[in-house]
Design goal:
About 30% of the residues lie in helices and about 30% in strands. It is α+β, with helices and mostly antiparallel strands and about 150 residues long. The chain has a 4-stranded antiparallel beta sheet, with helices on one face. Helix 2 packs antiparallel against helix 4 (about 110-130). It is elongated. The protein starts with about 25 loop residues before the first strand and ends with a strand.
């Protein structure tokens, strides 16, 4: 048996065959954060950032990215997403991002949740970079994964 799921017996990249797996309800939650200056957080709280409502735009970007994960990640299956939620927690020096993706499919949905978090973070960075040149993105991880 091949030890690598995305390589065939000759070492060539391949998409994993999930045809024999049952369709199951699946969910994954990913988190990440963008670290910024407290002054940037204050501008965000006051809705005074030059590019407007950055959280609303980041949420839409995250949902759109989750829907297109198979176009971002080679060999990733396209999934019919039932729901993607994106939440932000504004902290004193950071914005915590949490995305949950749900599907009924033959394979997991964690890549969609991770992609949503990444897209949200990148969008926040892009929309706040004029106000803060020292931002950083990190701590992106799968927090929970379920199937039933």
């Amino acid at each position: 048996m091949n030890a690598f799921t995305h390589l065939d017996q000759t070492g060539q990249a391949r998409m994993v065959d999930v045809g024999g797996k049952p369709v199951q309800a699946r969910s994954a939650t990913a988190t990440g954060r963008i670290v910024c200056q407290p002054a940037t957080i204050e501008l965000l709280r006051q809705q005074a950032l030059p590019k407007g409502d950055v959280l609303a735009v980041a949420r839409i970007a995250a949902i759109q990215a989750a829907k297109r994960t198979h176009e971002w990640i080679p060999l990733c299956h396209s999934l019919p997403l039932d729901q993607v939620t994106v939440d932000f927690e504004i902290l004193p020096g950071a914005i915590q991002i949490t995305a949950t993706a749900r599907t009924s499919a033959k394979t997991g949905v964690e890549m969609e949740a991770l992609t949503a978090v990444c897209a949200a973070a990148l969008t926040l960075y892009d929309m706040m970079k004029a106000a803060d040149k020292s931002m950083g993105i990190g701590e992106i991880r799968v927090a929970e994964k379920t199937k039933s």
